[in-house]
Amino acid sequence: MDGPGRAGEILDHFQLDRMRYKWRQWAIYPCNWKVAIEAFLEPYHVAATHTQLLAYADYYAASQQYGLHSVSKYDAREDKFKMAQASGTVRAGKGEDARISTYELIRENYETVMNTASTETLVKAASRLVDELPENTTPAECIDHWLKSAKADDAARGVIWPDIPPEIQAESGLAWGLFPNQNILHGVTFASPAYRVRPYGDDPNRCIFEAYALERFPDGEEPETKWVFAEPTRDNWGPVLEQDFNNMEFVQKGMKSSGFRGALPNPHQEQKVINLHRCLAAFMEGRGAPRILDESS
Ligand SMILES: [Fe+2]
To answer: Which of 94, 97, 203, 208 shows the greatest Cβ crowding within 10 Å of its Cβ?
Structure first.
């Protein structure tokens, strides 16, 4: 198997090895492990599945293959949102007042995706943007101020941010699909949410679904955590994961329908899904390889 290659070089900048679990939990879920990890590989589904999030940002995303691995990144189409920080979760919110919309976006993600996609430091610093910056501050100015202020807050409590070159930040995007069964949304002091899915014995209709949050903590203040079994419910996983869980089981059923000709992944937004199946097929001596639908139906 290839090493992590360029994917590893990029992720090394984020020093994931310095992060520790904030929480970690798992479930047994009724779909195949590939169906489960696919549900988290692309933000393409946000517009249909997590419609409440559309009030805060656009979720149009590019995607790119890196050998066995692959990345997704938000693909900003408006000039005012084009910047190194636009491709990942720590980005400007949409709306007239970037000071307010940026806070609302990061708060919504944090509160509805189990305290992930940023950190408490970042959320608190974003909440102050409206007091610390004048009206008509541009999205780029908001992001610049927000990150400087959160970096200083973290430094004061002993969490030192790694220096990440802007070109690496831009290339690193939103989330890495690490072959074959992981997906990690990364940030400068966090890697969350992150997912790992495994087969459930030899049952093709069930999987072991794991999710966790990594974060950088002051030395000696890392929380004690353990893997917690949690039924896949809203109470245990929050409203956004519940929305994903509500789909995955029925995607599994739909794939077995006699009317299902095959999946049609989006070539701009779903390269991670395409790459997963292409690479899996290589390991399986060609079985399960993507093929032209017209030849198979
Ligand atoms: Fe989702």
So the answer is: 94
